[in-house]
Amino acid sequence: MKKLIKITILLFTISGMVIPQTTFTTAIAKANTGNENTEIMPYADETEWRYKVVDGKLYKRKYNITKKKWIGSWIPV
Question: Most exposed among 8, 31, 39, 62, judged by the fewest C-beta atoms under 10 Å?
Answer without folding.
Answer: 39
